[in-house]
Amino acid sequence: MVNLTTPHDKSAQPRFLTKSRFILATECPTKLFYTGKDEYPSDKKDDLFLTTLADGGHQVGALAKLYFPDGHEVKGDYTSAESETVALMSAENVTIFEPLIRYKNLLVRIDILVKKGNEFEIIEVKAKSYSKTKDKNFLNKKGGLASKWKSYIFDIAFQKHVLSKAFSGCVVRSHLMLVDKSVVCSKNGLNQKFRLVRDKKTPGNVTVTTTMDRSDLDSQLLIKVNTDQAVDIAYSTNVLNKTPSKYFKDNVAELAKAYENDVKIKSPIGIKCKSCEFRYLPKDDEDMQLSGFRSCWKDQLNWSDQDFKDQTVLDIWNFKKADKLINDGVIKLYDISHKDIDPEEDATVFDQSELTTKHRQWLQVQKVKDCDDSRYLASQSMREEISSWQYPLHFIDFETTSVAIPFYKGMKPYEGIAFQFSHHMLHENGQIEHAGQFLNTNRGEFPNFHFIRELRRQLGDDDGSILMYSSHENSILNTIYGQLRSSTEKDKDILCDFVRTITRSTASSDEKWVGDRAMIDMLKVVTKYYYDPVTRGQNSIKAVLPAMLNGSEFLQKKYSRPVYGSSQIPSKNFSNQVWITFENQRVANPYSKLPKMFEDISAQDENLFFAGDELSNGGMALAAYSILQFSELGDYERLELNKALLRYCELDTWAMVAIFEGWMNMLEQSS
């Protein structure tokens, strides 16, 4: 995307509607007013960079260009890129990478443009897997655009529209170039031939260098798929869902005019607002940055700042009727009635049994209506659940990724890669220890079989129950099981037996099993038996942990002392760590207190890796792994990044232990 002007600089060059701005507006046209403005910060500002690192998007883009050895790449800012594009387009036949095409107030940078006389071929490259059987034509069973492909088709349709307008009378065909998930890689080390080179002048920018030769392209990992049929359907679609008389090209014109004149298009509020990237929360009264989300809701509901302190239907866990209630004017949880949730007859009565989804939704609403901030625990059912677990308890967390360009010959794109785990043990006498860990970030080394051997070594000495948080660990072990079955590893039968013992088969598996020690999902335990109003309906470990710490005097007393990483609670990565500190009379979230990744390198270099100082979420762990694989780092940088990964993963499994300790303390008090 070319950023041509600041939002309010009317004397600058015209404001162009680009493809990324157009796609943003198809999500919600009001976002077009907020995007790119410093006063309306977006929490997705850095997501694209991290996501592209994690899924191998940079490498896929570089690989696509190798399929066109005669291509010319256009670089530079708006002015130079446009003039270079015009010069190249004067040739009868030419292939251009990133040409800048402008028509009035519309502008696109096309990934690959092939010109043959008066015929043009647009190729949009995406690091997304494609199945020739399941994704054919990008349509659903009813003949409309498949939901998972809609934004990609809108993207290429916008480009085709702009190019057709700029070169009137030309013939334009459009394609997506995608990752063919059926292709088997024919060479070892293919992904290591794409190296990320950091641009120190522009943090966040990377380029890809490659040592590929023509023989490396024998495996056609990327497939070019025609999208003309899907684009024609898009052109007959009203992408803004406003009036039935308007279609794609009318939408483009409307959006371009609004963006050019910096006019806000009002869009009805609804459940879509829950994922709005402009939900910035002002830090204090003097904070000059604004929330786009709040601006929309103030305009349409006439709310004050005080209103935003109340929970709304958007906060209800797993709730599908938010749009209906919002349309009916029922916004705040205070206003919701029992019939609005439509639970079972007895859903207003909470006993000690398992919570259904509707029970839990009404419990959340009722606690707000009653101004009840007490935690709920279905103690009887929780006791029965925990009594079925066997000590020592093993708490595990995995860090995994999947990359488009495979590591080894015989692998397919996006096969799961497990590069790290952390393992805590809790013994029946209450003793806690960080019992083990695994991390393999060696360049070009497929870690999965080393990973599973070490996991077996650490978990195989007893029959203790194994706990995970969500089903991710079970899914990746099923993936490794499949990889082992097709491998030539000498111990594959032993390892496969181990995997079957601690997992459940997934729905896509051609075998069915439930292991004797099948891992227990703590997330399911949370949703069935436990609710803390502080979480406001969120159940992720990063929401449940700080809520538990704030509600448990037992945990506060225990972990406000430097016992973690001492002889009392041994740790692999922390020494005399104090997990409980207070900010504004609340326990500070331990995830915000992870040690700084790099102590001695410049802030510019640090921002190149991450958007902040901490390794604070799983997406960053994936990006860190990609950096360690594909970027030229010094020994010090590699060491520090590995240390950060180890600390982060250990915190995840300690969080599971702390939540469990909190439950046990609550059960003890209730008895």
Verbal overview:
There is one protein chain. The chain is α+β, with helices and mostly antiparallel strands and 671 residues long. Among the domains are: 279-376, no CATH class; 384-522, no CATH class; 532-670, no CATH class. It is built from 22 helices and 19 strands. The longest helix has 36 residues, at 635-670. The N and C termini lie far apart (61 Å).
Mind sketching the topology for me?
Layout: H1 19-27, H2 31-34, H3 47-55, H4 57-66, E1 72-73, H5 78-89, E2 93-97, E3 100-103, E4 106-109, E5 112-116, E6 119-130, H6 150-166, E7 171-180, E8 194-198, E9 206-210, E10 222-226, H7 228-235, H8 248-260, H9 292-301, H10 322-327, H11 338-341, H12 357-369, E11 376-377, H13 379-387, E12 393-402, E13 416-426, E14 432-439, H14 448-459, E15 466-468, H15 472-485, H16 492-502, E16 520-521, H17 522-529, E17 530-531, H18 541-551, H19 553-559, E18 582-583, E19 586-587, H20 603-609, H21 618-630, H22 635-670
Parallel strand pairs: 1-2, 6-7, 12-15, 15-16
Antiparallel strand pairs: 2-5, 3-4, 5-6, 7-10, 8-9, 11-17, 12-13, 13-14, 18-19
Helix pairs in contact: 1-6, 3-21, 6-7, 15-16, 18-22
